Amino acid sequence: QVQLVESGGGLVQPGGSLRLSCAASGSIFSIYAMGWYRQAPGKQRELVAAITNGGGTNYLDSVKGRFTISRDNAKKMVYLQMNSLKPEDTAVYYCHIASTGYWGQGTQVTVSS
């Protein structure tokens, strides 16, 4: 059984920082790439950042230089460090195991003054 549980969301002022965490259970974690997605109200879900099992990364253009994705295979954790947050980063953020149907339940990030 594979489960993904996100945490770390919340309300933050513009320019602030948050660190999202995704805890995975199951034996497939270290094999696959992992991704953080987000979905704002009325918009499609989009890929924010991804990391391969070897540590290669890619980012949505609008978050490059502000967000950093990382993973700890031994702990089965994936992180998303978000700095210089903007109101347009407000969304529900989801953790996903690439090429599978496994998603977390999401964590709300709200950037507002």
What topology does this entry show?
Elements: E1 3-7, E2 10-12, E3 18-25, E4 34-39, E5 46-51, E6 57-59, E7 67-72, E8 77-82, E9 91-97, E10 107-111
Please describe what this structure looks like.
The model has no long low-confidence stretch (mean pLDDT 95). It is built from no helices and 10 strands. With 113 residues, it is mainly β. The protein is globular, with a radius of gyration of 13 Å. The chain has strands at residues 3-7, 10-12, 18-25, 34-39, 46-51, 57-59, 67-72, 77-82, 91-97, 107-111. 0% of the residues lie in helices and 49% in strands. A hairpin with a 4-residue loop joins strand 7 (67-72) and strand 8 (77-82). The strands form 2 sheets. Strands 2-10-9-4-5-6 form a 6-stranded mixed β-sheet, with no helix packed on it. A 4-stranded antiparallel β-sheet has the order 1-3-8-7, with no helix packed on it.
Q: Helical percent range? A: under 10%
Number of beta strands? 10
The rounded distance between the terminal residues' Cα atoms is: 40 Å
Order of helices and strands: EEEEEEEEEE
Q: Structural class, judged by helices and strands? A: mainly beta
Supply Rg.
13 Å
Coarse morphology: globular
Count of runs of 4 or more consecutive helical residues: 0
Low-pLDDT segments:
none
Sheet having the most strands: 6 strands, mixed
- Strand fraction: over 45%
Provide the residue-averaged pLDDT: 95
* Strand neighbour order, sheet with most strands: 2-10-9-4-5-6
